[in-house]
Amino acid sequence: MHVSCCRHHFRVLLLLFAAAASAADEFQFREAPQFYNSPSCPPPLTSTLDSVCSPSVLVHVAMTLDVAYLRGSMAAVHSILQHSSCPQSIHFHFVASSSIARLNSTISLSFPSLPFLIHPFDPSVVASLISTSIRAALDRPLNYARSYLPRLLPRCVSRVVYLDSDLILVDDIASLAATPINPPFALAAPEYCNANLNVYFTPTFWSNPSSPWPSWAAAPAISTRA
Description:
about 230 residues; alpha/beta; Spore Coat Polysaccharide Biosynthesis Protein SpsA, Chain A; two-stranded parallel ribbon; 7 helices
């Protein structure tokens, strides 16, 4: 009797764990409310493919996208639209390495009017180049897709704001996108724990013939508080 009872509870626990795992794999998102431009904004973008090069694009936003961090990405997109004065003039660029059809469907159903593109990223491009000294949480190739944005995005995109998928914006992204970046600087990044980027990106780093970084990345970077 006791053994039978224990087996029953064990089977129930297995079923519960299986149900939880299945639910985690199939997140359901409600359709987000429509956010509208203020009167001073450019004309709203359409969700067609050619909108990416429209002169009405006020801000290009790039993010990586995968199933594991999908909830964070959806929350980030919602916060960007919610706090923007011109939400219909923002074009999103999602970089993904798998489950692209599923991700495309999820974004389209949750944000029906969102102008966006999903750019496929081949993880083998960078998989063999990831240093084993980097902490395990950063060993996923998609974490390094941001370095290949110039190769992934259309040529008409001259400036883009890259955001991690685990953040929430509480201000208008247009202010961040308007950060001055004058030649010879190629990018701007927020200060992170007072880190000195020159310690990591040394002349030896840039002179490495096996470096995967595009040539423009060798330009100096400036740091700005976000």
